[in-house]
Amino acid sequence: MPAERLLPTTEAEDLLALVREIARDELAPHAAEAEEHSRFPREAFRLLGKTGLLGLPYPERFGGGEQPYEVYLQALEEVASAWMSVAVGLSVHVMSSYALATFGTEEQKSRWLPDVVGGDLLGGYALSESHAGSDAGALSTRAVRDGDHYTVNGTKAWITHAGVADFYTLMARTSDAGGKGVSCFFAPGHVDGLVAAKPERKMGLTGSITAQLSFSDVRVDADRLIGAEGDGLKIALSALDSGRLGIAACGVGLAQAALDEAVAYAKQRTQFGRAIIDFQGLEFLLADMAAAVDSARATYLDAARRRDRGLPFTRQAAIAKLVCTDAAMKVTTDAVQVLGGAGYTRDFPAERYMREAKVLQIFEGTNQIQRLVIGRTLR
Predict the structure, then answer these.
(1) Is there a catalytic annotation at residue 78?
(2) In terms of CATH architecture, what is 10-118?
(3) Under 8 Å CB-to-CB from 274, ≥6 apart: which residues?
(4) Which range is least confidently modeled, 122-136, 186-200, 262-276, 336-350?
(5) What are the backbone dihedrals phi and psi of residue 347, each rounded to the nearest 5 degrees, phi first?
(6) Is the whole model's pTM more than 0.85, yes or no?
(7) What does the alpha-carbon distance between residue 66 and residue 113 come to, in Å, rounded to a whole number?
(8) Angle, in degrees to the nearest 10, between helices 106-118 and 42-50
(9) Taking 70 as the threshold, does the pLDDT of residue 133 lie above it?
(10) Sign of the alpha-carbon torsion through 167, 173, 174, 180
């Protein structure tokens, strides 16, 4: 049962129809097997690049789609409803492209952005460290200027696409001035001294690679500095506002998939001579699931529309990330309950949806951090 959408233009309606077709025909049929075998779907990202989906919010003159976030996020939601690992990878790539597209010079954008939005280059976002997750200003990876390049040393943790990304938006310390000493680099992904550890053995999103990333005397050309030295934390936090909306949309897509699975099962499963959807106890559970999905979608769209209009949206992004990912956790858990014993088996996707939902409450800032962000706006 496709989600009903109110889109701003006919062009957007055609775009969402294309995305839905790709999600249904090219992504969904491969998701279960790839996740079962922890296989990274690099070809899926090349397909998204060729069809223009990796650069939807970025300028047309660099090969992007120049779509408002309201449209991009709904396209992302459609991908998430088909294959969550691909959707999270798409969201990470778009966030990783943000620094270059927003704060890069014209020369930098002309040089790299067409390949970034076209899918030839896959991105990773290298901010977190083992001791600096929620406290991003405490990072210790260091970049030291040496003539026409920087030498980078340190270790990043929990990096999506570690080892397979062609570039990383890297946050590294260039001075000891706390948060003001962090700088941003468009760092190459395949270079001497850059090594990815063995991928983490995760509960869900097993088709998405997550690993530590170690920099040992890695040379990064000075012309890959984005903005000025010391701008890194400002750039990182700005990117995270938009990235949180991406994860919110992923959560809604996953919840929609779980709701659709639960409704389809409840219509065909019979007990006492009736389809179980006809029993009020189950009907009310499904109704609550539908209400959670629809209200979560409205929450992220409100934040996206504020962003598109140039209004402040940090608080709304935090609310959307909190509400949408909590909804994903609840709806996927309830979907398992609707399927009963079958929902606990890998013969149905509901159990995978539930495992995938959990991490949404953790990355791009835990939901406890979202509450801190929201709370500070109330003071």
Answers:
(1) no
(2) Orthogonal Bundle (1.10)
(3) none
(4) 122-136
(5) -75, -15
(6) yes
(7) 13
(8) 110
(9) no
(10) positive
| Token pair for 315 | 């608080």
For the chain, the distance separating the N- and C-terminal CA atoms, rounded to the nearest angstrom, is: 42
Residue 296 has a CB neighbour count (10 Å cut-off) of 26
Q: Spell out where the chain has E strands.
A: 123-126, 142-146, 149-160, 167-173, 182-188, 194-196, 210-221, 225-226, 270-271, 274-275
CATH of 236-377 given 3.40.50.80, 1.20.140.10, 1.10.1370.40, 3.40.50.150 = 1.20.140.10
Q: Nearest 10 degrees: CA dihedral of 348, 349, 352, 356?
A: -160
Residue 1 has pLDDT above 90, yes or no: no
Q: How far apart are CA 237 and CA 78, in angstroms?
A: 26
Using CA atoms of 46, 76, 225, 309 in order, give the dihedral in degrees to the nearest 10.
140
pLDDT in tens, 42-86: 999 999 999 999 999 999 999 999 999 999 999 999 999 999 999
Q: Give the helix/strand (H/E) hosting 72.
A: helix 69-82
> CB–CB of 146/196 below 8 Å?
no
CA distance 206 to 105: 36
Rounded-to-integer distance, Cα 243 and Cα 365, Å: 10
Residues in contact with 59: Cβ distance below 8 Å, sequence separation at least 6, in sequence order: 66, 101
- The CATH T-level fold of domain 123-233 is Butyryl-CoA Dehydrogenase, subunit A; domain 2 (2.40.110)
Length of the chain: 379
Q: Over the stretch 222-242, which tens digit does the pLDDT of each residue have?
A: 999 999 999 999 999 999 999
| Higher local confidence (pLDDT), 142 or 135 | 142
Write out the DSSP string of 134-169. S-GGG---EEEEETTEEEEEEEEEEEETTTT-SEEE
Task: DSSP letter for 66, please.
Answer: -
**CA 48 centroid distance within chain:** 14
Q: Which amino acid, one-letter code, is at 151? A: T
- The residue ranges of every structural domain in the chain are 10-118, 123-233, 236-377
DSSP H helix total and E strand total for the chain = 11, 10
What is the rounded distance in angstroms from the CA atom of residue 276 to the CA atom of residue 271?
Answer: 6
Strand 274-275, strand 270-271: pairing: antiparallel
CB 250 within 8 A of CB 80: yes
